[in-house]
Amino acid sequence: MPKPIRAVAVCGTRPDAIKMAPVVHALRNHPAFEVRLVATGQHREMLDQVLRLFSLMPDADLNIMTPHQTLAEITTRSLEGLDRLLHEWSPDVVLAQGDTTTTFVAALAAFYRKVAFGHVEAGLRTYDKYQPFPEEMNRRLTAPLADFHFAPTATARRNLLQEHIPAERIWITGNTGIDAVLWVARQPYTADDPCLQRALSHSGRLVLLTAHRRENWGEPLANIARAAHTLLEQFDDLLLVLPMHRNPRVRQPLQAILGEHPRALLTEPLDYAPFVHLMRRADLILTDSGGVQEEAPAFGKPILVLRETTERPEGVAAGTAKLVGTAPEQIVAEATHLLSDADAYAQMARSINPYGDGRAAERIREILLRELGGGEL
Ligand code: UD1
Ligand code: UDP
Questions:
Q1: 181 in a domain, yes or no?
Q2: Closest alpha carbon to 109 in 133, 74, 70, 66
Q3: Which one of 145, 156, 223, 341 is CB 3.0 to 4.6 Å from 107, fit for a cystine?
Q4: Which ligand is located closest to the Cα atom of residue 195?
Q5: Same domain (yes/no): 45, 147
Q6: What distance in Å separates the CA atoms of residue 96 and residue 273, rounded to the nearest whole number?
Q7: Handedness of CA 90, 80, 47, 300 (dihedral sign)
Q8: pLDDT tens digit string along 195-219?
Q9: Residues 337 and 364 both lie in one domain
């Protein structure tokens, strides 16, 4: 019996858990792997929501989150905690996804302990250091530390090649977030939350809004809220659903501007399953989220991206996503166009899946199996 491949999967935030869950399950479903899951706890409630849905229990939880945490605090606390665990466990490979601070720190901790690091969702870039902040630098700094680069798309692979990452260390796998969203969409679901029931039974049109990015804190977020308010005034059949990120800096301007509007439904962050069902029901999605940009096209939902740049150009190229920034006039103009012109709407409301086919985690498992020498068991 060959030795098992000992993998440590690390997650800290909501998107980390969503995108790592399929990988953890894929590895655990194969006898060659022994998998431990570590939560840094960079997020708390929003992380736990996802772990519950995917029936995942961390083997260790660093529980680092504090209100108003700084980037330096996240970095130092999770680095020390991960370093201790890697020392104790001596795994063969550490895996983390994307561009959160948890991910960058996981790569650094693995490097310090000379453990191989596999980067899930590698190679996304805007090439603007501050957009998104700090994610662009998190993912760029992770790349030279990684040994396995699991690129979701051909564009991501090209970015990595341009940075002199050896071609033989890059694999195009698709994005594991698509594995997750397709899995959730297949599960039976009953809307038991009253807020969600109202949204799902609304007879008019539904606009779904999420916003949380650091570079949008302050005036840009207030502008996003003002634009949403104008749209509600312009279209009296619209219901706006806004699941708010837990960060108080994010909530304050949204609540101040939209909190009193009778057709603005401001909610706590939704569990992933209800959120997915809400995306499917939505007529239009406004967001600065990374993951939502990947998921919305799978359901044929037009998406206006509330950012100046995107590392996910595939949706824009396919014509199902549009970068609109955060100027209220621009958001209102683009949304009004889509809500008033059926042809323009139909052109954007096409179902495409440039980010994955739902089998990314399986591919990652096969690559690790081959590369780490476990071979067939
Ligand atoms: C983090 C990631 C970002 C990702 C986002 C997903 C970094 C630097 N940022 O940003 O890339 O897009 O998660 O949502 O890695 N909070 C809670 N409960 C929670 C989660 C957050 O109360 O479950 C509050 C806390 O006050 C916390 C604050 O939100 O201090 C900010 O959380 P943090 O992880 O620092 O930043 P995000 O903006 O969530
Ligand atoms: N999401 C969720 N509940 C919500 C809002 C978003 O489950 O109330 C999911 C969404 O479907 C996507 C992920 O969270 O998979 C995106 O997380 P977020 O926007 O916080 O982070 P980003 O992707 O921008 O890093």
A1: no
A2: 74
A3: 145
A4: 2
A5: yes
A6: 22
A7: negative
A8: 889 999 999 999 999 999 999 999 9
A9: no
The overall pTM is greater than 0.85: yes
Q: In this predicted structure, what is the pLDDT of residue 374?
A: 57
- Domain span holding position 260: 193-349
Ligand 1 closest atom vs CA 247: 29
Q: Which residues are catalytic?
A: 99, 121, 135, 212, 214, 245
Q: Tell me the per-residue pLDDT of 72-97, one tens digit each, with 9 for 90 and over.
A: 999 999 999 999 999 999 999 999 99
Same domain, 137 and 13: yes
Does 66 map to a domain? Answer: yes
For residue 183, being part of any structural domain is answered with: no
Nearest 5°: CA angle at 325, between 42 and 126? 60
C-alpha 290 – ligand 1 centre gap (Å): 13
What DSSP letter does each residue of 64-102 carry, written as one string? ---TT--HHHHHHHHHHHHHHHHHHH--SEEEEETTSHH
CATH code for the domain in which residue 123 is found: 3.40.50.2000
Instruction: Give, for ligand 2, the residue of 20, 46, 210, 306 to mutate: max count of ligand atoms closer than 8 Å to Cβ.
Output: 210
Q: How far is the CA of 266 from the centre of ligand 1 (A)?
A: 18
Q: How far, in Å, is the centroid of ligand 2 from the Cα of 89?
A: 31
